[in-house]
Fold:
Amino acid sequence: MLSPEFIEDLWYGKHPLSILLAPLGWVYQSFMSIRRLAYQAGLLPVKRVSVPVIIVGNITAGGTGKTPLVIWLADYLKKNNFRPGIVSRGYGGAASHWPQQVRPDSDPYMVGDEPVVIARHTACPVAASPDRYAAVVQLMEHADCNVIICDDGLQRNALARDIEIAVVDSIRRFGNGRCLPAGPLRESIRRLRSVDMIVSNGYPGHGEYPMEYLAKSLHSLIDPHKEVTVDSFKNKTVHAVTGIGHPARFFSMLRNCGMSIIKHEFPDHYHFTRQDIRFDDGLPVVMTEKDAVKCTAFAGEHHWFLAIDVRMNNIFEHRFSKLLKDIINGQKTA
Structure:
């Protein structure tokens, strides 16, 4: 398995191997473009459901902040009297059959870590499956949903969509500008011209909507009712453990909270073991919630996860609300 450091250098640095891999990136980009055109031309079937479908995705591999935005959207929709259902890829899940209904107490090693986090935060019906359409159909059979949010799936064109929101990492942007495997792009940057909204995780570029992460509190992995303020860890040294797509953002957030960190990076969606988070030095261990759901079974009293909130501005809320109203009123078609 390639290390996160190597991938970071290959895709976001100046590693010479990226140049050698560039022809493969051109082939991959061409394939993705032709595939999307085939769906648009009706050569490949596009399946539509009876309720609006909102896609939250990105054009780069790795974390950009899609899942926190999905949670925010679900909360916003519920406050505005919608009944959202959420579908996710279930990446890393080892279930023998899909779709899987996901509950707050589901096993993340079976259904994926991100769907479990979403289920815990939203109290919405959640289904996971590599086949997004099958997950949507199952949700609508078992839950009274009148809008669907799809966590990831921008490139899964078989599912018809009404709103596309692309999330961009404001720091890393599009890396070296090359497609997989030479760079982080899943498809051409030109794809962003066709989405309805671009959200920037951090400082926005032209035409982008800002999304701000707010450090909320620290929660014990072994006692869900035990919560302390972020300030209680200020000026302390902690082990910072993470297996997410962009660990530098998490490390920076902990430093901004006043913590001195000892970094422990693992690949995205990593399957943790007891030894991975055991250091026997008495120092607190802090991780993301996405990592924490996979470590609860073997955590100790010194293991914590950092809870975050997402803040979106009123301009985004207004634009999103307008798009949704237009769909419901039949003024926009996918």
